[in-house]
Amino acid sequence: MTTEISQETILSRTSWLKRLTNGLRILYASPATAVGTTIFILFVLMALFGPMLAPYGFNEQIYTDARQPPSPTHWFGTDNLGRDVFSRVVLGARDILRLSGLGTILAVISGTTFGLVSGYWGGLFDEILMRIFDSLLAMPALLLALLLLGTLGPSENSVLVVILIVYTPIVARVVRSVVLSVKTRAFVEAARLQGESLGRILFREILPSVLPALTVEAALRFSYAIFLVASLGFLGVGVQPPNPNWGLMVSEARQNVSQLPWALYFPAGAIAVVVIGVNLMADGLKRILQAGD
Amino acid sequence: MAKYILRRLSFLALTLILTSLLVFAVTQFVPGDVARIVLGREAGEEALEAFREKFGLNDPLPVQYLRWLGNFVTGDWGESISTRSDIYPIVMERLRNSLQLAAITLIISVPLATLLGVIAGLNENRLADNLISVASLSVVGLPEFVTGLILIEVFSRRLNLLPANSSVRQGTPFMDALPMLILPAITATLVLLAYIARLTRAGVVEELKKPYVRTAVLKGLPYRTVIVKHVLRNALLPTITIIAISFGWLISGLIVIENVFNYPGLGRLLVFAIDRRDLPLMQAVTMVTVLGFALANLAADLLYAYLNPRIRLD
């Protein structure tokens, strides 16, 4: 009963503000999801207003203050180059959320398009595309990511391409499976007989049915993308110094971990908190949206 | 069964051919001229041309692909660009190390994860289940390098029990290398544990809801017998598939973990190759890993089909 209402409130055509508040109210109904959503919102605020919050620049070296433990002037201490760890962690939020968020959006757009077209058309196109996606999925995600990065060279754009290529097949499969179950239904048939254009059938008629599953998948992909961007940073094959990517900060801090452990603890803690937060949120979304199936 | 095996084998061959095409295609997108990257900025035009001729870079792409694949299948994996040594022996040695670590991880994690999953499933929504679920949800989200660094902090720096650096030398006897393997294996175990336990729990919960369980209870069988003889038999069968699915996670996880602990496996070799833009080495490591992944999946599928005759029929 409640799930039916919640699905309707999310998907009905009310104003976006009303939809947003409704969505938030549903997310805050369960404690675990509420914690996750709160963490996520805090990190988004940090990403948006980071430059106002951070007392120093991400690469600002205060030589006189180098290698200091946490103190009232440097909340998270300073690293061996005299950079304020608090400022770097705060400014790093924008970096990691932008890369993983943008990458996820790109993958969702391309995966949805491929999934819709492939599922609706079927036939040889579908067959070939699915075999290509199978071979992409036959590789563990990180392996594929590393192969791509090794070829493209380390840069922010390469990381975006990696997220796009690694997650497109996964999103496309989810979308395609919904399309297959919907495309024989009467309303799609009716649209076709009315002579509606392909784009209109795909995006106006079929897409709404795909949205619940797609939302869940997008949230999951986003949480994995954060994970991936941080891991690539840690391995030193993603974004390059002096970028305040938390994974990269952790790997840089390892060299001096016995003298300056705080330079490692805080970025590692930031990764842990944001990943757990987004996971809890995605898990909650999944329970809310899939309960109606 | 023979027919099933044959079908699975041909499917495996198709996957491998497509993957090899993919690996080859991806590495064609190297920005710039490979000869220029390898020989450096100062190389003259003749040297570049000689290099291209020697490695067949002037041939059409399909020819290059077939030659590369043929060489790979026959064990001629070429020479590493960065170390100037034969790739095959290096990769094989690293492969052995990685397999060793993977085997220890599976030996610890599979029984433990299954046990935890069964406990959680049998106590659905009670304290034990909630504890296991919350713990696994928080562990499953942490990147392997964070988990690994926490373990190093606790067991190596604070308690001084185990080494933080696992750079096992070649030829070290297994018993001497074992202490260095424990922390990486525990890190990988934590990654798998949460994943396998959650899926096993779901399997047990679903099985308990089936009518035959109610029948068994109502006809007067002791609860223990119902669980052990009926529910677990059916619920644990899909665990094989779950473990097979988690191989992908294990491989991704091990790539990071080997780099956290400096363990000389394929994952560290791959990152080394990427740092130096060593394409032949990258291709070889990727192909070996994909092959291992595909074979592990095949083994799991065949085992599942052997234990569950229904699968073989469709």
Q: Any overview of this molecule?
A:
The complex is a heterodimer of chains A (293) and B (314). Chain A is mainly alpha-helical and 293 residues long. Chain A has one domain (15-292): MetI-like fold (Orthogonal Bundle), CATH 1.10.3720.10. Helix content of chain A is 75%, strand content 0%. Chain A has helices spanning 2-11, 16-27, 31-53, 85-121, 123-137, 141-152, 156-182, 186-193, 198-235, 246-253, 262-290. The longest helix of chain A is centred in the last third of the chain and has 38 residues, at 198-235. The termini of chain B are close together. The mean pLDDT of chain B is 85. At the A-B interface, helix 5, helix 6, helix 9, helix 10 and helix 11 of A face helix 1, helix 6, helix 7, helix 11 and helix 12 of B.
Shape of chain A: elongated
Total number of helical segments of chain A? 11
Mean pLDDT of chain B: 85
How many E-type strands of chain B? 0
Label the CATH architecture of the largest domain in chain B. Orthogonal Bundle
Q: How many separate domains of chain B?
A: 2
- Which superfamily, in CATH terms, is the homologous superfamily of chain A? MetI-like
| Annotated CATH topology of the largest domain in chain B | MetI-like fold
User: Whole-Å distance between the termini of chain A?
Assistant: 12 Å
How many separate domains make up the residues of chain A? Answer: 1
- Under the CATH scheme, which class of the largest domain in chain B? Mainly Alpha
Overall morphology of chain B = globular
Weakly predicted, low-confidence segments of chain B: none
Please state the structural category of chain A: mainly alpha
| Elements of chain A, N to C (H/E) | HHHHHHHHHHH
- CATH level 4 superfamily of the largest domain in chain B: MetI-like
Task: Describe the main β-sheet of chain B briefly.
Answer: none
**Which CATH class of chain A?**
Mainly Alpha
- Helix percent of chain A reads over 70%
Question: Oligomer, anyone?
Answer: heterodimer
